[in-house]
Structure formats: structure tokens, C-alpha cells
Amino acid sequence: MPIVKVMDMTGKEVGEITLSEVIFGAEINGAVLHAAVRTYLMNQRQGTQSTLTRTEVSGGGKKPWRQKGTGRARQGSTRAPQWTHGGVALGPKPRDYRLSMNKKARRAALYSALSAKVAEGSLIVVDDIVCNEYKTKTMVKMINALGGARKPLIVLPEVNGMIVKSCANIPGAKTALAHTINVYDILNADKFIASKAAIEKLEEVFA
Fold it and tell me: In angstroms, rounded to a whole number, what is the distance separating the alpha carbons of residues 207 and 21?
């Protein structure tokens, strides 16, 4: 079973924690990680892009000139795609980009992502993450004391408005809840900082 040091918010070691072998010691599966990240990113797309075709552009009901005898190319409408202010040929229309993964694959991807963080030494367990006032400086001090990170992911067991808002102004930092965490956020972070309670919540929900 993986064993990780437990730190306090000042970066001092205060103990150790034994992590679940199932969640944090799983074999890393690159294929399901790729599928999970692709699914997440595709599902973020709104798919609301739209252009007007020649049938949707206002005007163009009258034939610009007669069919024959003018010496010019025949034209049926001033709203054909080759005309200025004409419709768009083969342009994008609203569509659904959503993908899905089965539950077993989603769970395997989550285990792989968490195990990868443990394997590379990027998972940091904090005995308790506390912020008694809306203070960005408090969270910056904690991140720096724990080794610093360009894109830290701070995982909490439950919603804590003070911590969330205190992290909001830190470039690259993101907060997440243990029971709703996703594979993309885990892999995108260079440091996975979780409170001891959040680790216990992760094991309770996903084991």
C-alpha cells in the first residue's frame, strides 16, 4: 500500500498516511486516461456555433438579371455563397459534441490519474487546510511551504467558501471537492494538494 507523508500548512511533516491500494496504487492505463480527458473536453463544448445558409439570409428573392443574352454568368439570387452578403456554403451548424464512457472505464481512469500522482510524488497530504478569513496570502503561503506549484489542485472534503475564494485570485490554482473530482483536473495539475479528510472522502466514495 502507498504510504505518503502528512504535512501541516507550514510544510512541516506531522505524520504518515497509508493510502488505499485500489485507488492510489492501481496500474496506470494510458488508454482510459486519454479517453477520459477527451470525453471531458468534448463535453465542455457548447456546440452553438451557427452560420446562415443561402435560404436563411434575408433578401435575394429576385433574379439579378435575365438568364441569357447579357454576356455575364447566369445568376439566380444575390444571396448565393459567391456573392457578397450571400449565405455560407457548408458552414458550421449547432451540434452535440457529447461523448460518454461507461462507469467501469471512468473509475479506471480516476484510479490511474490518482496513482500517477502518487507515483510521480505530486500528491501532498495536509493534515487540515484551514482559512479563517478571506485571505489569498494564507493560501499562497501554504502552497509555497509545500514546495510551490504553478498549477496546484487543492482538494477539499466539502465546500468551504473562504478557501475557495481565497484561492480564486491565485493564477493557475484550482479547488475541487473530493466526491466530484475529475480526471482532467487531476492530470492538469502539477501538485495535488489534499487535506487528510479529503483523502478519506475519496476512499469512501470511490473505493
Answer: 9
* The residue type at 207: A
For residue 176, what is its C-alpha cell?
Answer: 475541487
Model pLDDT for residues 34-56, shown as the tens digit of each residue: 999 999 999 999 999 999 999 99
Alpha carbons 19 and 21: distance in angstroms, whole number: 6
- Half-sphere exposure at residue 137, Cβ-oriented, CA atoms within 13 angstroms: 1
Local structure of residue 28 (DSSP, 8 states): P
Reported pTM: 0.84
- In the prediction, which pLDDT does 132 show? 87
CB neighbour list of residue 139: distance below 8 Å, 6 or more residues apart: 131, 154, 163, 166, 167, 170, 173
Q: CA separation (Å) from 87 to 79, 96, 151?
A: 6, 23, 44
pLDDT digits (tens, 9 = 90+) for 80-98: 999 999 999 999 999 999 9
**Closest Cα partner for 151 from 108, 199, 192, 101?**
192
Q: In angstroms, rounded to a whole number, what is the distance separating the alpha carbons of residues 130 and 97?
A: 40
